Here is the input.
Amino acid sequence: MFVSVGQFYFATVSFAVGGTAGILHAFFPKRGVLAVLTDVLFFLGFSALFLYAEYRFRFPDFRPYMGACALCGFFLIKKILSQSVALYKKTWYNKIVKRKKSVKTDRSKL
Here is the structure.
């Protein structure tokens, strides 16, 4: 029998677990052999975190929407985080370059 009680709660928790994983994944290397190894270890850890959340919050049997919500949370947070970090990185990079140029021109005037 299909029970629909609490499904929104389970979907929200799954989304939050995926979002947390997306935030944590931002601190891992992006290229190279080390990135492949850390990605494999990360997703094994993410699976363990998801299984722990299922146990801790007493999820019913696994349903496809739970995994889909976790993946959506992961990719949504990862995308938002990468865009905002790129924006700040570009802004700070431009400020640093501008400051270096102004220091360089000040030195040349001496």
The chain is about 80% helix and 0% strand. Helices lie at 7-25, 33-56, 64-109. The first helix runs from residue 7 to 25. The chain has a mean pLDDT of 81.
